[in-house]
Amino acid sequence: MTPSPRDVSQLLIEWTKGSLAARDELLPLVYEELRRLAHRHMRRERHGHTLQTSALVHEAFIRLVDQKNVEWESRSHFFAIASEMMRRILVDYARRRGNLKRGGDTQQVPLENTLIVSEERSAEVIALDEALRELSSFDPRKGQIVELRFFGGLSIEETADVLGISPGTVMRDWTLAKAWLRKQITGNNSKID
Amino acid sequence: MQPDRWQQIDQLFHLALAQEPNRRVTFLEEKCAGDKTLRSEVEALLASHEQAESFIEAPASDLAAELFGKEQTTLRVDQHVGSYRILSLLGAGGMGEVYLAHDTNLRRKVALKLLPPQFTINPDRVHRFEQEALAVSALNHPNIVTIHEIGRDNGSQFIVTEFVEGETLRARLLQSPISLLTALDIGIQVAGALAAAHASGVVHRDIKPDNIMLRTDGYVKVLDFGLAKLIETASIASGPDQSTLAKVHSHFGLVLGTAAYMSPEQARGLPVDARTDIFSLAVVLYEMITSHQPFNGATVSDIVAAILKQEPAPLKRDSLEVPRELEWIIRKGLAKDREERYQTVKELLIDLRRLKQELELQSKFEGFAAGPQNLTPTTTRDQLIKGFDTATLNAPSTTETILTGSKQQGRKVAIGLITIMAAVAVIALFSVIGFNFGRKQAPAISYPIPRQVTFRRGTISSARFAPDGGRLIYSAAFDGKLPEVFTSGLESPESRSLKAQLGGRIAGVQSVSRVGEMALLLDCELNWGECVNGILARVPLDGGTPHELAEHVYSADWSPDGKELAIIRVVEGVFQLEYPINKVLYKASGFIDHLRVSPKGDRVAFIDHPILDDPSGSIVVVDLSGNQKILSAGWQTAKGLAWSPKGDEVWFSAGKQRTIALHAVSTSGQYRLLYEAPGDVRLFDISSNGQVLVSRGQPRSRMMGSAIVSKPEQDLSWFDWSTSAALSDDGKSLLFYEWGVATGGVPRVYLRKLDGPTDPVMLGQGKAMGLSPDGNWALAVQEGPPSQLVLLPTGAGQQAGEPRPFPRGDIKEYHYASWFPDGQQILFTGLTDPSRGLRSYIQDLSGGEPRPITEEGNIALLVSPDGKHFLGFTAGAHTSGKYYVCSIDGKKATPIAGLALGDTPIQWSADSRALYVREDEDFSSGIYRVDLSSGDRKLLKEIVPDPVGLIGIEVKPGGIQITPDGRSYVYTYWTFTPDLFVLDGLK
Fold first, then answer.
1. Which chain B residues touch A128 with a CB distance below 8 Å?
2. Interchain CB distance below 8 Å, B6 and A139
3. Cβ pair B91:A110 closer than 8 A
4. What is the mean pLDDT of chain B?
5. A34 chain-B contacts, CB cut-off 8 A
6. Residues with Cβ < 8 Å from B431, sequence gap 6 or more?
7. pLDDT classification of A144: cutoffs 50, 70, 90
8. Which of residues 399-458 of B touch A (CB under 8 A)?
9. Are B557 and B519 in contact (CB under 8 A)?
């Protein structure tokens, strides 16, 4: 069932006010929308009308949210929410993927290595999430920069704009945050790149 | 981490980064002054930084799209797919998800594989895959997984195979080392499967441990024959360099694991043959024996480089040497030059078998010698032999192996095979002789004789023979009138209209029963001249009023006895096939049409178009329990279908290029071309005595306009498919392009001067976009990929000669282009990457890279005459999108007041204060002037093309053009005026 934009807007407002229940209710909706978009994206390819992959989440979001009904405090607020949403979705996805592999009594016959790759990627998403949480605990700004840059897909300039700091600072923080996260996650063999 | 400590690290890290790399160690030594933890922390970060270059640089949404894109429409437990009920998920990967399912008809367990849509959008490829897969499955080889069905449900392609209880070789390899004999046995069984497939002309192309199933009883089953064909891309074939290949592979997520089994010729992108499978099998053998792959690397490119250049390390097993013969066999299989490899898999098979027997014999002796405490090898061997016997037909029994010497044994096998090969050769020879003999006996090729039966001008939506075969019933829109139903004799051009009998309603004939009752669609819509979406009614042929049966019907056909109807109708937005009415046999993902019941009434054939509004599709039959089979796929346009009188073939009209011809496909999938003629030949019916009813005609795209003020509208068309692109502001020049049969499908740009009697002048290749304000240049897009924006000199000014391409930058596809009023800049829309959105750019005529002017997803279409604004468009995700007016710097966008839903802006007014918009009806369009400040709209001109044979008006930009002064206009419309023919003697 397609959720009405109103529901989503309401949930978003509740989430921004701190309701975790609202967030948990929201996730599957956005997730479903993402899947639908990704699926449709493939069908459209044939016509040459391609969907903007990198804007997938924003589009999913915009489609779900009747923006008139949500008083976004600012642009930065929107991006922060969208980035966090993306992070949640990916981590949620990765966890489910992991459970699928372990759970149940179904026999696993991985036909392709891609399954393994997906699982590796899923594990990396979870590892990144955990490392990012740790980074944010002692350097919240760097954590936020990574969230906006990686999960939100914002450029250095856009990130600087959203956070109200200089692009130079973003660049500097980003460089160290990346090095630290990479070191933290894998030591040496990450594939999230 | 303590905040102050972290701050310290932060500072040192950046200071060290600022140093020359070779200075960093000394620098840190100085700065850390004995604080070893600090120093190692920063050093570790620097090392990590060195490798973190691309780490998390690509936004997570790419990853999300990749992951979700891969995720198929996951089926639920208990969900039905065709006649299968899903029981559980067995596995998932880049080539789809595999489910354990219950076959509700045959009450057995099956494996159902759902293919991801990206591999099945090319119907041609799907068709080739099906042919190969089914051909191999039909061999009934014990080591080849049997395919039960390849079908489509709800838009997804699925493959149903026997359910193999066991594990993949990949899973087995991950557990523990495989014994030498087991490895040989697996190799032998795989080689047996390949030998059989190669003999029937099919190469697997993707032999790897994941495609080899080990059944619990020792049988080995090879999976996915032909599937590799689905994922091959043009770039593999054309791009011999490694980077292309790596890209292709990573694009499909077929990464390291798959690359490791590629043959050098595959890695080079060369055509592959049976010897590719030999190489891959040798890689698998190597891996089974040594527990590692012969060609390693951290990335696909590294692996590819190893495959192309490196000799694999000597075979070692737990650091022991393996039998020299085995080393020799595998090396021969891994020869980089395929001429030096085993030439046939049979040779490899023979060598593997011989070796295995020798080893078995040895272990038997050793077993006896070692006494009862050494039981394990014997047990393993027994299991092995069990599998071996069942799999290899010519293998001697175990006792024989023990009793005879190994050398002799090898020879015996070889002799056995030579005998078989000789027998095969003799059979082949006989069949060649038999074939030639048969050819001599065959009657001379017959030429069908066409007889024209209608002569009036208009579109013909459908036609049928009356049951007696002497009369025709057809629906046609002649002379610009609405469609009517006519009857006529076969020998006379005279016809009788049933208009009065049908109360003057628009009607299309669908079927005439053997007892002379018509099935008609009333009040239908016209789609390219065809009557669709109407009320189904039955009407006696010899008079009587219609008896209405159902609404929203697209196609209908009587059962052979004339008692039941099969129909296609839309229910809740989904096309479904019902036979009899209310019993649903098929639901479509896109749309379906042209259904016909077989002469025995046991099957229904129809055309399945997977994409709405796209005429491409496949010929499908469905039986009365809803089991479907695709008979022929990959048609760009498919219209019209009928059963051959015997019911053994479906004949249909379809085309892969511009024109449509007649084809036949047997119910077992044998295809042949039946009849071709200039223009489109569309099939309507086949009579019981084999006469074929077709229409033939040439669809055309025509241009009309009143370009010079005060002159009446005139025909401006040139060849068969003229499409208007731009009209000069003074209305004196028309830029257009031709892209029909005349130009062989490659578009060509023409300029037509309207103020004189001269013929159009060809300017070059491409689709025309715009004419420069001074009239000296035409802007055109030449088809790619990648497409190219070019300037074509019109010859009007000083310029002449070659097309002038623009620097492309990152742009891969061009979509719309127009001129700035000063003639110094060009506005165009492009795409840099298929995964991104369209956006618009400005291109300076003087050169330089294009500069983006809009965000992705927004398009700038036309610059106002004062140069201050552009007309913009935002692609809507689920709406048709929105037009707006934007300041030229892209900063201020204003919605257009007075723009109605369905309006399409086509031009600015000369004063930049208003837009001209078109509002389209089915067979006419209105041009309105919409004032931007007041929102007032005023009708300027009604476009009403000649209704005879009219099937639509061009909707692309340029399809309707008006000059900024609102005085001259031109439009493009499509016509089709075929005639009906009866073909005698078509077989």
1. 56
2. yes
3. yes
4. 81
5. 64, 68
6. none
7. very high
8. none
9. yes
d(Cα B243, Cα B300) in Å, to the nearest integer?
9
Least Cα separation, residue B208 to chain A (angstroms): 9
Would you call A183 an interface residue with chain B, using a CB distance cutoff of 8 Å? yes
**Strand, helix or coil at A121?**
helix
Q: Is the peptide bond before B785 cis (omega within 30 degrees of 0)?
A: yes
Amino acid identity of A28?
Answer: P
The answer to whether residue B319 scores a pLDDT higher than 70 is: no
Q: Of B75, B16, B874, which is closest to residue A59 (Cα–Cα)?
A: B874
A103 touches B at CB < 8 Å = no
Interface of B with A in 853-892 (CB under 8 A): 856-857, 875, 877-878
Cα–Cα distance measured from residue A185 to residue B355, given in angstroms and rounded to the nearest whole number: 48
- Across the interface, do A53 and B62 touch by the CB < 8 Å criterion? yes
Which pLDDT belongs to residue B13?
Answer: 93
What Å distances lie between residue B517 and B466, B545, B946, CA to CA? 9, 11, 35
Dihedral of CA atoms B840, B845, B851, B853 in degrees, nearest 10, equals -40
Exposure class string for B905-940: b at 16+ Cβ within 10 A, else e: bbbbbbebebbbbbbbeebebbbbbbebeeeebeee
Interchain contact, B56 vs A63, CB within 8 Å: no
Token look-up 């490798």 returns B51
**pLDDT over threshold 60, residue B425:** no
Cα–Cα distance, B174 to A109 (Å, whole number)? 13
What ipTM is given for this predicted complex? Answer: 0.74
Q: A65 touching B, CB under 8 A?
A: no
What is the arithmetic mean of pLDDT over A107-119? 35
Question: What tokens appear for B801 in the block?
Answer: 């000669």
Contact A42, B121 (CB under 8 A): yes
Distance between CA B168 and CA B433 in Å, rounded?
44
Q: A residues 66-85 near B, CB within 8 Å?
A: none
Contact list, A38 vs chain B (CB under 8 Å): 64-65, 68-69, 71
Q: How far lies B514's CA from each of B475, B511, B540, B591, in Å?
A: 19, 10, 11, 28
Q: How far is A84 from chain B (nearest CA, A)?
A: 11
Q: Is B472 helix (H, G, I), strand (E, B) or coil?
A: strand
Residue B90 has its nearest CB partner, among A107, A118, A150, at A107
The residue of chain B with its CA nearest to that of A151 is: B60
User: What residue ranges in B807-924 does DSSP mark as E strands?
Assistant: 813-819, 825-831, 839-844, 851-852, 858-863, 869-874, 882-887, 893-895, 903-908, 914-920
* CA–CA separation, B84 and B489 (whole Å): 49
Are B475 and B460 in contact, with CB atoms under 8 Å apart? yes
**8 Å CB contact of A183 and B45:** yes
So what's the pLDDT on residue B867?
A: 92
Nearest CA in chain A to B3: A138
When pLDDT is averaged across residues B441-469 and rounded to a whole number, the result is 80
Q: Which ranges of chain A would DSSP assign to H, the alpha helix?
A: 5-16, 20-45, 56-64, 75-102, 113-138, 140-146, 156-163, 167-186
**Per-residue confidence band for B445, with pLDDT thresholds at 50, 70 and 90:** very low
DSSP A151: I
Q: pLDDT (tens digit, 9 = 90+) per residue, A15-59?
A: 667 777 776 676 666 666 665 555 544 443 333 333 333 345 555
Strand pairing partners for B214? B167, B220
Cα angle for residues B487, B490, B496 (degrees, 5° grid): 20
| Residue closest to A111 by CA, chosen among B286, B254, B98, B263 | B98
